[in-house]
Amino acid sequence: MVLKINRARKIEGEIEVPGDKSISHRSLILGALAEGESQIKGLLEGEDCLCTLKIMQQLGVEIKKEKAGRYLVKGRGLNGLQEAADVLDCGNSGTSMRLLTGLLAAQDFYSVLTGDKSLRKRPMARIINPLSSMGAQIYSRKKGLAPLTILGTQLTSIEYELPVASAQLKSSILLGALYSPKETVIIEPAISRDHTEKMLQGAGIDLQIEADRVILPASCQRHLNPFQIQIPGDISSAAFFIAAALLAEKGELLIKNVGINQTRSGFLEVAAAMGGQIEILNQTKAAGEATADLLIKPSQLKGIEIAGDLIPRLIDEIPIIAVLAVFAEGKTIIKDAAELRVKETDRISAVAAEFKKLGIKITENPDGMEIQGVDHLTGGVKVESYHDHRIAMSLAILALRTCDGLTIAGSEIIKTSFPDFKKLLEKVMK
Ligand SMILES: O=C(O)C1=C[C@@H](OP(=O)(O)O)[C@@H](O)[C@H](O)C1
Ligand SMILES: C=C(OP(=O)(O)O)C(=O)O
């Protein structure tokens, strides 16, 4: 599917973005493991989360849709999942595959997890290795690639230092560790998103969080309480609209009810450091997660350096930060972000290749990129999504500042995380 986006000088209005993708996956999984019925409001109905939803149903969990975004999950307890009759398809979703592998490794049945062409190229050895040390029996294609075959078994605990700051890896180990009576310790090289920890604690699991580690104390009898959750708007989706409003010439955009959890909100810090005018209003907490309304005004941006521990706190926002950098004065340098090479596509080379088509000066480095700001972009060319939703949406926002717009090929992939992206963008383009 091809998406044509034209120049927009004014971005204005009041919107809400769909529910947080990370929290949506976790609500479905943890709801299924709870003892009783959980109610989820604001679930993201993007394809990634719908894959998790379908897999939980295949594992015997009853999940009822009451209305848009509102679901009842009939939890079966930690030991109530059933063997699925078929292969479990994670589609494009790394979160589904990595979290569910940890969970399924500890069940007393056999499972096979697969995914689309992109997911079958993404590294799974990072979860297979620690889970195998816990006793898991997981078989993969060469180099740890999916499909994965899992012969569920009793897992033991682990003390493990993560080789990368990855919330998927941390969560995968934690889900498996719930089934071990011994203590598990996970040490992080830098803080990654902590939704799993917050939600497990919220469901009554004793979990200790220290500066660089998460500890699941020994326990013979763990169980999860059912919960009610209102999922906040996804800051990773909001980032596209924040960028559109910052780069506009005129207007003002209010985005209501966005999750601003500290471990996720690095984008807001970067946008502010670049000179972006973003007011954080009506801060509150919903289900342990900080939320706020964001008021964004057109801003003159300047280039900065982005590196170190900040990277995991904005990892999915780097393609859209690269778009901000194109229209910032001076140079923006992004370092320590080699993880971008193993996302839905290699996001460093995808951004570099597509920006070069537009005449933007960008240098690709092994762990990041350097972008020189421009005054003016002609556009009028066809660019590619690389089957990556965040690349497609970043290019759509870039198009708003080109004279002749852009045509984005492969835009159907946007539905993995933001099905109404185009509709919402058209609503605020004036
Ligand atoms: O745990 C999660 O929900 C996610 C963690 C991040 O991946 P990594 O754990 O691979 O960094 C992020 O890129 C992904 O979109 C969602
Ligand atoms: C990397 C992403 O997701 P996942 O790893 O779940 O495919 C993303 O949404 O940008």
UniProtKB/TrEMBL annotation:
Binding-site list for phosphoenolpyruvate: 21, 94, 122, 168, 347, 390
Pathway where it operates: Metabolic intermediate biosynthesis; chorismate biosynthesis; chorismate from D-erythrose 4-phosphate and phosphoenolpyruvate: step 6/7
Iron-sulfur among keywords: no
Assigned keywords, A-Z: Amino-acid biosynthesis, Aromatic amino acid biosynthesis, Cytoplasm, Transferase
Enzyme Commission (EC) number: 2.5.1.19
Compartment(s) of residence: Cytoplasm
Subunit structure: Monomer.
Official protein name in the record: 3-phosphoshikimate 1-carboxyvinyltransferase
Source organism: Halanaerobium salsuginis
Upper classification of the organism: Bacteria, Bacillati, Bacillota, Clostridia, Halanaerobiales
Protein's gene: aroA
